[in-house]
Amino acid sequence: DKLILYAILILCVQIIIRIIYSWYCHRHFEESKARISFDKQLFKEIISFAGWNLWGNLAAALFTQGVNIVLNIFFGPVVNAARGIAVTVQSAVQQFAVNFQTALNPQITKTYASGELDAMHTLICRSSKFTFMLLFCLSLPIMVETRFILNLWLGQVPDYTVSFIRLILCICIIDAMANPFMTAAAATGKVKKYQLTVGSILLLIVPFSYLALRLGGVPESVFIVHLAIIIIAFTIRIVIIRSMINISILYYLTKVIIPIMFIGVISISITIPIHTILPQTASASLFSIIITMLIVMILSYYIGLTKTEKHFVLAKVSSFLSRNKQ
Taking all residues of the chain, what is their mean pLDDT, rounded to a whole number? Predict the structure, then answer.
């Protein structure tokens, strides 16, 4: 059975990765050496931290599978197949944010541990803003030319796949922008309120999705409900984090939300008319994808970046070009 073999191979990959992690840490980090010890207070803190994080992850898994079940009840496997394709696209785009945030997350934790809250606030804002710009640069061309990309990839595109992908990419961007809040909460070690509140809100996606479909909603209703609740959860995350690390909501709005709103609105206002007037050909679609990415990159540079960030980007680009010339 190829499906069973696939599952076994995935398990083997994870086991190998786990072994490599253990070997590397054991070799390079003295504190990772194993020893028999029991510190009741430390054990209690670790269990509490891990337990509430488990609740958050469990809530994410439950609403994800719950949505699949709800769609299957009302529309059957065809619509679920379209959702599966959309989730595959989401995972590919989201991986870019994960790779980028992996570099910033330790710095957020370090600045909190050092008591440098102002530096921590700056890192959180930069992580959210840069995540938006990176994902928006990748997602907007996909959203504009979804049908063309799917025809190249699949040939025969299931119904609702185009609208599902466009909605799920919006969800992906907002959700990824909130990841620095979780990193900040984890840095404090007090994740109970954060995980309990956010996890409980995300679980509302399933009953509200069921209600929307029960009232006669189209399949896209599930994703619209998801998007609305993700936006609510994002707002509540900011409120919770404000009291934990003393970050100003106005500061976050000024440094992150307002610049990205300008980038988003202007980019869409320019790219949609271009897409509309271009002929429905492969070359025109490729041109649309390239020009959309360039527009987002230019607007991100001139609107999204501060003067210091622009100097940093230019220095990195200059260094990269000089290395390649050699």
Answer: 88
